[in-house]
Amino acid sequence: MKQAHHPEVGEIALTGVMAALSDPIRVGLVRVLADGRERGWGEFRAPVAKSTLSHHLRVLRDAGLTRTRQEGTRCFVALRRQDMEARFPGLLHVVLAAAEEEDLGRQVSMKDDPHPA
Amino acid sequence: MKQAHHPEVGEIALTGVMAALSDPIRVGLVRVLADGRERGWGEFRAPVAKSTLSHHLRVLRDAGLTRTRQEGTRCFVALRRQDMEARFPGLLHVVLAAAEEEDLGRQVSMKDDPHPA
DNA sequence: TAGCTTGTTCGATGTTTCACGAACGTCGAA
DNA sequence: TTCGACGTTCGTGAAACATCGAACAAGCTA
Description:
Two copies of one chain form a homodimer.
Chain A: H1 14-20, H2 24-33, E1 39-40, E2 44-45, H3 50-63, E3 66-71, E4 74-79, H4 81-87, H5 91-102, E5 109-110
The structure holds a DNA duplex (30 and 30 nucleotides).
């Protein structure tokens, strides 16, 4: 588990962000992170193998959408809302609203938080 | 040249739109169409073969971002601004602003319109 | 009719992506 | 030090994608 790379704000590329958000699972991950809370890796519930989940979280991280922090042997993931807002103002908001409208990424939830309402 | 398919407003999918906008050429195409003017296919200038350009315009069309109209043997392409606005309010605007910020898709221009400013 | 123009489609190629299970490295607990 | 938990990485396929040139179809034009 080496220290993961995170792009700086200025390095965040629009194409990377768009590509990252072109997958339903990843949109779901962003949605559950949308409230700004940092989440433990193991809390995520998605219908894929853990290696695949790791892959998706890596794509989000590489694109600059999320930040991963390590603490001992476990990881915490958070949305880089402010960085995204600084780089591409309004983007995250409209994408989240659009995803909500479509209920895209509903397959993703958090443990002990069945995403009910 | 058969009649191309266009998704209805309600059928436009967020993932499709995001995927379509994850390529610099396609973002460039959207940018030159952003003023709302309908453009002739042959006016586009992009550093790819015409078969590749055709492919990119098809992806944009299939995603619901553009509309293609045929007139005799030639085609005219226009951005579906209103439809996009109805489906995903604000999305096109923020994406265009972000693309502007990054000068993404500058490789695409129009004949007799060298994208000067 | 013959030929030109226009854009699409086809086939091939190389790259990237998504998916999985298995193996691995690291850390904390026993 | 041994064990278990936690994520990452690897190896592998299947599918999708970007790209090109060549072939094609449809419509003008001569």
